[in-house]
Design goal:
heterodimer, A: alpha+beta, Aldehyde Oxidoreductase, domain 4, seven-stranded mixed sheet, five-stranded mixed sheet, about 25% strand, globular, B: about 260 residues, alpha+beta, Uridine Diphospho-n-acetylenolpyruvylglucosamine Reductase, domain 2, Enolase-like, domain 1, 3 domains, five-stranded antiparallel sheet, 11 helices, 14 strands
Chain lengths: ~800, ~260
């Protein structure tokens, strides 16, 4: 018999056995009898009227099975791809929500917009047939940037969306902010761009759909982070398939980062097509196809102003942002730059007044939606950058200005002026820990050493907080969520005492099969190896909202914890009967039920056995079996945060920025598995460093072509870009989640971009540089130095 | 990938004959450029002629010059004790190409024949004034590279080896394009008894020499000799990673670093 491995232990990840030995089961590994191959034909134009598609030559191609277009979708009366959030403007007017057809109808609005689905016996035949489609486009000018898109006279994506503005959203007290600015001793101003990103999970998206006429049931295998939500959105809203006739399976999925947490048109088209051709169909995206169809992230242009008194205390914060939505509204699209952005603008500071205005704008680009962090990295970047700008302008040390404004540990729970109430935290403790871990006191010596080599060294801070554990449904509902955001778990104890957990979150790299097994092992006292976690199949798992927004442990783990508690409650009733004691006298500890104050005990296995072989069992008052289910809807978000310190060295000759040291001290609440938390932090930080220094999705204006259309031109961070990171936790416990957990999936990505850019600006500040836009590429830094160094040299 | 015929000849004349007789046929060496192009359906050759079974195209031989067989992979050049001893800059250049997988498959002949404007080998071949040996003749590097993906190779002509004269000193400095790790700018500098050669890759539509730097370095083989030499931005490449003026600046910086490397 194995061991209990509980909360706080760091066992190796269970799931890695199959991944590292090549025994994972990904969508593209699955083969179904009689399976055909499908390929999507995508618009090569950013903006065009779709005049006509002549299928005739393609229908004569070898191996052809079917060619489907938007006309076929319309003829079948299918729905538009739904948006899961409906936001409103300041006057309560709902956002403009034009239809998002699963295959383009009448017009294409971005390079990659789907115009046809070609099914053939093989992928090669489908690709060859696709080349025979004669598509008549009337090309229109494209607009790709938000500043251009809202400009009068810009190309209009939709007839009924003037100036391409989907919603003019606001949050906060405009009047109070204006009053505070009038009284301010100093106002810091900053214009910045939050660069557009492409998610790049290692596994490209893929899907297989199958229809069984015998049972009138559909099955969709999809690379999804939330199969139950796909079943609902696609079944109930797009294809009108009853929920009990639709199974959605998301098996092993090779990374998501948000890219796979949307309902995509490809899923709907392939499911619909499988019934039309009465054969299973498989589609697997290429990397290039993913670049023009996976939802992109970020893409903001922002003007921010921070009002301070003469001592450097923050008085008010005003932020105006234009956020790119791309060509259509994706599943969470309009929620990201609004509800997940504005409420984070208080950061870890006492900020008396905040006003945030976000114009959500359509452009001829891939739809933009959640990408790891989703809104919160953007908010953190604006705030942590302008704090540095204010400190520099007022001649206050950057750490000191943060200390002067930080919410003290004793002030929690802390109500911000922008909806959210932080339950717990200790930003000062994280800052103090990070200052020591980063050896800040010897930075001067390191800077001098760099100088001797002709290099500029800089140090950057980011003290931040984020909102995790999406989400309290009641709160989300008020903000425009069209669904709930709870989670569910079932704990099934087998007659032999082993446990299978069915949970609605989805594991695609986060280590849930390990973390969740530790929770069960800890709570029920069963060996770690006797617990399996089942996820990703709507036929096997009761329900769930999936994995995103650092919610799996916070919301899913809470449901699991509650379900395990229910198992213990029932176990105590069975034990009371077997031990002939009162239920209140039964204690459960370390896998044993015992009568308090006696040596009479029953093991967990004995109780499980009795539940399924109820010969001696209180059948009058208790059902047989030992299986419990819980749904958990959080009462608040959780608020992980911390302090990140980046240290960079800039080569002024080439403009190259090298990240030389990185330190993170984060408050993630209770840590279930420190090894997995460290891995999440590492991965998150690397993604944030990628945004700060390397990654940039670039479109050509006018044509709408994606110029950074492959890994040859879109720079992902690599191992040799990064130093060994120092990562530690300084946790306070969440006051409202069952285990005190806060979540850790996104913290790295949220805290790091500001730390890195603040370090780059620090390295160049002696030349008069006050801001650097992301990514801080060599070309950009060199140009900045060309422009910056001249006036300085002349002084 | 679209269907194509596949040939694997075992004699060079047979390969040359296939290449001229089959319309739209292509040679494949390591395939590091060709195979991705095929997979993306951007190229649709009728036939591929695989060079891997031809005799005598692999390996590195010593002499008054170093001769590297066309089918020798980059990793072998990088690890060669002979190249490391005689032209360490060339071994270093080979070690900077792509990633380990590319270096294990990609060949010097394939790279030189393809003449990608950002490939490393063209800088080494032109910088060292090497000779390209083909199935038909010998071509001096100065006559071989004709611009964007263009070479002096004629129909049916197959590179069999590259012959490198031994420099007194040589160095290669590469500023890697952040994503692709091709040369955003790469500069190869070689000092011979009769003068210095400077060859630049990545900066323009094809590898080119920089006579003012060559003259300055021939006078004084030291980075300071070229620090003030600026490259004309005319004809240099501008793209989303680097504008022409930045590339021009990098040519000078990388040339200085290449001289530094040559001076060890």
């Amino acid at each position: 018999m194995g061991n209990v491995i509980g909360i706080g232990a760091a066992p190796k990840r269970k799931e890695d056995q199959r991944f590292l030995t090549g025994r994972g089961n990904y969508v593209s590994d699955i083969k179904r009898p009689g399976m055909a191959a499908g390929v999507f034909v995508r618009s090569p134009h950013g903006h065009a009227i779709l005049r006509d598609i002549d299928k005739s030559a393609a229908l004569g191609a070898p191996g052809i099975v079917a060619v489907l277009t938007g006309d076929d979708v319309a003829a079948d009366g299918l729905g538009s791809l739904p948006c899961g959030w409906g936001i409103t403007d300041a006057k309560g007017v709902p956002m403009k929500e034009p239809p998002f057809p699963m295959l383009a109808q009448g017009k294409v609005r971005f390079v990659g917009d789907m115009v046809a689905f070609v099914v053939a016996e093989t992928v090669e035949q489908a690709n060859s047939a696709a080349e025979l489609l004669a598509i008549d486009y009337e090309v229109l000018p494209s607009v790709v940037g938000v500043l251009d898109a809202v400009h009068p006279g810009a190309p209009q994506l939709f007839d009924d969306v003037p100036n391409n503005v989907c919603c003019d959203w606001e949050l906060g007290d405009k009047g109070a902010v204006e009053t505070a600015f009038r009284k301010a001793a100093h106002v810091a101003k900053l214009s910045l761009v939050n660069n557009r990103l492409i998610g790049n999970p290692m596994e490209p998206r893929a899907a297989i759909a199958e229809y069984e006429p015998g049972t009138d049931r559909y099955t969709l295998w999809s690379t999804s982070q939330f199969p139950h939500v796909v079943r609902f959105l696609m079944g109930a809203l797009v294809l009108k398939i009853p929920q009990h006739k639709l199974r959605v399976v998301a098996p092993d999925v090779g990374g998501g980062f948000g890219v796979k947490q949307f309902h995509y048109g490809e899923e709907a088209v392939i499911t619909w097509a499988a019934r039309r051709v009465m054969r299973p169909i498989k589609w697997v995206a290429s990397r290039s196809e993913g670049y023009v169809s996976d939802r992109h992230g970020r893409d903001h242009v922002t003007e921010a102003e921070l009002a301070l008194d003469e001592t450097g205390k923050f008085l008010a914060f005003r932020v105006k942002t234009l956020a790119n939505m791309g060509g259509y509204l994706s599943t969470f699209g309009p929620n990201i730059p609004t509800n997940l952005y504005g409420p984070l603008l208080s950061g870890v500071y006492t900020m008396p007044a905040i006003y945030c205005n976000v114009k959500v704008v359509f452009t001829n680009t891939v739809p933009v939606d959640a990408y790891r962090g989703a809104g919160r990295p953007e908010a953190t970047f604006v705030l942590e950058r302008i704090v540095d700008v204010a400190a520099a302008e007022m001649g206050i040390d950057r750490v000191e200005i943060r200390r002067r404004n930080m919410i003290p540990k004793e002030a929690y729970p802390y109500q911000t002026p922008v909806l959210v109430q932080y339950d717990s935290g200790d930003p000062m403790g994280c800052l103090d820990g990070a200052l020591v871990a980063a050896d800040v006191k010897n930075f001067g010596a390191r800077k001098a050493a760099s100088q001797r080599k002709g290099k500029f060294r800089g140090l950057g801070y980011s003290t931040y907080v984020e909102a995790c554990g999406l989400a309290p449904s009641r709160f989300a509902g008020r903000l425009g969520a069209r669904g709930g955001l709870y989670e569910s778990a079932t704990v099934r104890v087998h007659p032999t005492g082993q446990v299978t957990v069915m949970i609605g979150t989805h594991n695609h790299g986060q280590g849930h099969e390990t973390t969740f097994a530790q929770i069960v092992s800890d709570k029920l006292g069963v060996p770690f190896e006797n617990v399996d976690i089942v996820f990703g199949d709507t036929d096997r798992v009761q329900f769930g909202m999936g994995t995103y927004g650092s919610r799996s442990l916070v919301v899913g783990g809470a449901a699991l914890s509650k379900a395990a508690d229910k198992v213990i409650v029932k176990g105590k009733k069975i034990a009371a009967h077997l031990l002939e004691a009162a239920e209140v006298d039964i204690q459960f500890e370390a896998g044993k039920f015992s009568v308090a104050g006696t040596d009479r005990t029953k093991t967990f296995e004995e109780i499980a056995g009795a539940a399924y072989v109820p010969h001696d069992y209180p059948l009058e008052v208790l059902e047989p079996g030992l299986e419990e289910q819980a749904y958990y809807d959080p009462v608040n978000f959780t608020y992980p945060g911390g302090c990140h310190i980046a240290e960079v060295e800039v080569d002024p000759e080439t403009g190259t920025v090298t990240l030389v040291n990185y330190t993170a001290v984060d408050d993630v609440g209770t840590v279930i598995n420190p090894m997995i938390v460290e891995g999440q932090l590492h991965g998150g930080i690397v993604q944030g460093v990628g945004q700060a220094l390397y990654e940039n999705a670039v479109y050509d204006d006018g044509s709408g072509q994606l110029l950074s259309g492959s890994l040859m031109d879109y720079c992902m961070p690599r191992a040799d870009h990064l130093p060994m990171m120092k990562v530690a936790t300084h946790s306070t416990l969440c006051t409202h989640t069952p285990m005190g957990v806060k979540g850790c999936g996104e913290v790295g990505t949220i805290g790091s971009p500001a730390a890195v850019i603040n370090a780059v600006v620090d390295a160049l500040s002696h030349l008069g540089v006050t801001h650097v836009d992301m990514p801080a590429t060599p070309n950009r830094i060199w140009r900045l130095l060309q422009n910056a160094s001249l006036p300085v040299a002349a002084e | 990938m679209k269907p194509f015929a596949y040939h694997q000849p075992d004699q060079i004349p047979d390969a040359a004959k296939l290449l001229t007789s089959i319309e739209d046929s292509k040679l494949v060496a390591g395939g590091m450029t060709l195979i991705p192009t095929l997979k993306q359906r951007l190229a649709n050759p009728a036939a591929l002629i695989d060079l891997s079974k031809l005799p005598g195209l692999k390996g590195i031989s010593d002499g008054a010059a170093i001769t590297i067989g066309a089918m020798t992979p980059h990793a072998e050049v990088a690890a060669s004790k002979l190249v490391q001893a005689k032209i360490p800059a060339l071994a270093a250049l080979a070690s900077m190409i792509g990633d380990p997988a590319v270096r294990s498959r990609g060949t010097i002949g394939g790279s030189v024949a393809n003449n990608d404007p950002a490939a490393d080998y063209p800088a080494g071949v032109l910088g060292l004034g090497a000779t390209i040996v083909t199935s038909a003749r010998e071509i001096l590097a100065d006559k071989f590279f004709l611009g964007l993906f263009e070479t002096a190779l004629q129909s049916g002509e197959i590179i069999t080896a590259i012959r490198f004269p031994l420099p007194l000193k040589a160095g290669y400095a590469k500023f890697k394009a952040p994503a692709s790790r091709y040369a955003l700018v790469g500069v190869f500098v070689a000092k011979f008894a009769d003068g210095v050669r400077v060859a630049v890759t990545g900066a323009g539509p094809g590898v080119f020499r920089v006579p003012p730097m060559e003259q300055a370095l021939s006078q004084n083989f030291d980075p300071s000799a070229i620090a003030a030499i600026k490259i004309d931005t005319d004809g240099l490449t501008s793209d989303i990673h680097a504008e022409a003026d930045y590339r021009a600046h990098l040519v000078t910086v990388m040339a200085k670093r290449a001289v530094d490397a040559a001076l060890g």
